[in-house]
Write a structure and sequence with these properties.
The protein has one domain. Helices cover 71% and strands 0% of the residues. The longest helix is centred in the C-terminal third of the chain and has 18 residues. It comes from Pustulibacterium marinum. This is Glyoxalase.
Length: 135
């Protein structure tokens, strides 16, 4: 195992609920073994990237009620291709070479899993995007 791989794997948080079993699909195994730990590791950066996105769009997000804020998070990631690609880069950049080789075999399906996980994490932390928290 090369140094980069060891270093990447050593800094990832363990997620006890992210079990990997033989009866799971390959995509689900990849999600639990790689995506969830990497997304958790990158959480603060993903939150800050969304905060920056909101501010670049004139803070409209802050004027919305909670249900519309949750919808805004989803729409921002689904519809803004540049933003989505930026988030994907933050995550894919933390893959080992072996993980990347697995990822490219079914990137379309794994991208959906990746972005859905990011959306849920941001929604679960929507209180961090309170306008007073930003100032």
């Amino acid at each position: 195992m090369d140094t980069r791989t060891k270093d990447l794997l050593s800094v990832r948080p363990e997620i006890p609920s992210a079990k990997v079993t033989d009866n799971m699909s390959r995509d689900e195994q990849f999600q639990n073994k790689t995506l969830r730990p990497v997304i958790k590791l990158q959480n603060d950066l993903l939150v800050e990237a969304f905060r920056n996105y909101v501010n670049k769009h004139k803070g409209f997000f802050y004027t919305l009620g909670l249900p519309k804020q949750l919808n805004y998070i989803e729409n921002a990631i689904h519809r803004d291709i540049k933003f989505r690609n930026s988030l994907k880069g933050m995550i894919i950049g933390q893959f080992t070479v072996e993980e990347y080789q697995t990822y490219i075999q079914n990137s379309s399906s794994l991208n959906k899993r990746m972005m859905n996980t990011v959306i849920e994490r941001l929604k679960d932390q929507v209180q961090l995007f309170d306008k007073e928290q930003v100032a």
